[in-house]
Amino acid sequence: KKRNPKDKANHLALVKFLEKDVAQTSGPSNPKDEVDNLADHDGDEMFVYPWKGVVVNLPVELKDGRYVGKSGSNMRDHLTSRGFNPTRVHPLWNFRGHSGCAVVEFNKGWAGFNNAMSFEKAYEADHHGKRDWKVVNDKSAIYGWVARADDYRANNLIGEHLRKIGDLRTVSDIMAEEDRKANTLVSNLTNVIEVKKRHFEEMESKFFETESSLSKLIAEKDLLHQSYNEEIKKIQVSARDHFQRIFNDHEKIKLQLEKQKRELELRGNELEKREVVNEYERKKLSEEIEENSVKNSLLQMASDEQRKADESVMKLADDQKREKEDLHKKIILLEKQLDAKQAVELEIERLRGQLNVMKHIGDDDKEVIKKVEDIHKNLREKEEELEDLESLNQTLVVQERKSNDELQDARKELIEGLKELSKSAHIGVKRMGELENKPFLDAMKRKYGDMDAEDRASEMCSLWEEYLRDPNWHPFKIVTVNGKSQGIIDENDDKLKGLKRDMGEDVYKAVATALTEINDYNPSGRYITTELWNFTEGRKASLQEGVSFLLNMWDVQKRRRTA
Q: In whole angstroms, what is the distance from residue 531 CA to residue 522 CA?
């Protein structure tokens, strides 16, 4: 039975794969030489595998107390030029230096075996083989041979190296292993071809099913298309008749409108002749009225905005003044209440002392008993008065805290309002703990010139900003001033000492200032905070100073608008 085209194609693909891929993995094709080399040797002879050669008596010389010789690549190039094609030559070294021996490595395939045997035969032909090395006493040239079992098992430098990089194998074992690999490969390829064949048949079946289904769909589509075209033709005929009727009606209406238009034009010409004189004056008056209306509207809007701004500023100033006065009154009242509380406490202690004295005088004297009762009564009254004072004091403390919170909120609002002002003003907002870039820029200009100064200054400033925000870096020491402990900059800190030495005094002062501000205003978070600041005196500004500055600004702006 003849094979079908698919079987032929599968078999041809397998043949091409075996010819191309399997032949390449088996090494260069030189069957005659390989058969000759294999025929010369017993199949059970043990070789070091992968194929290795041994060269001895390499020329060496003594330099600085150690033997040195040519590199392995030099020997490899020499052997390659003779047609042996080694992959690598590995010189062997010992404690005295170059040993004069080397191991030659060949490819693992049969081409490598052929090159190794050619290498051995060439040296044997020159009487520099293994037997010559063992017999000849006067050894004046290089000797070489293929590594075998005795070399592998030798208790010397060559044997140790061969045992590290290879194994003992017979030619028969290697050939049997390659046969097993080839059979396994053929079996695997056969299975793959069968799987591909089944997959192809499944795809072919699906193709025929899809083709049949597609043919049915195409036929149904043609029928639908034909029906659709017939319906479209009917709709087009109906629409054309309908549009024709509408067009005729429009033509009639158009003629009527044109007639009415001509009549209106005649009447309009008559009216234009009558009113042409007054039209220019009326138009001019209308434009002036419109311009005045726009100007009045803009002026009214500006006036409203100004009034709102004035009211807001005055309200803020009045609120701050009233809150300050209330706070001052509360402080005075608290002081009075505290004095009264202390006086009542002293009176209570005095009455208790009198009571104790009266108790010790005696219980029989009626006058003493009456005095004790009076003292008890006064003591109860004073204790009630003390409780009332403590309650009032607690209420005032709560009100004071509330007022203080309101003042802090007002201070925050004032800071937000003044943030956009320039630092040239004597009252403004300062970022506490922010590092100034100018000292770094000046230092970099002195050190590197103007070319790279700006970039270097930005990098250095960014680096020190990271240091400032590092909670693990705490360059402060505690000192006692006027009996109080306070933290100051530790000038012996390694980073600060290095900064002062490398960048100068100005940069050091800028970093020290930022450190001090962070330690004063935000020691735990180590991030920048904003504060109302008096730039003229270099200190924290009071809320009254901020409000006064804001009122002065408002007065200046008001005078400018008035002028």
A: 12
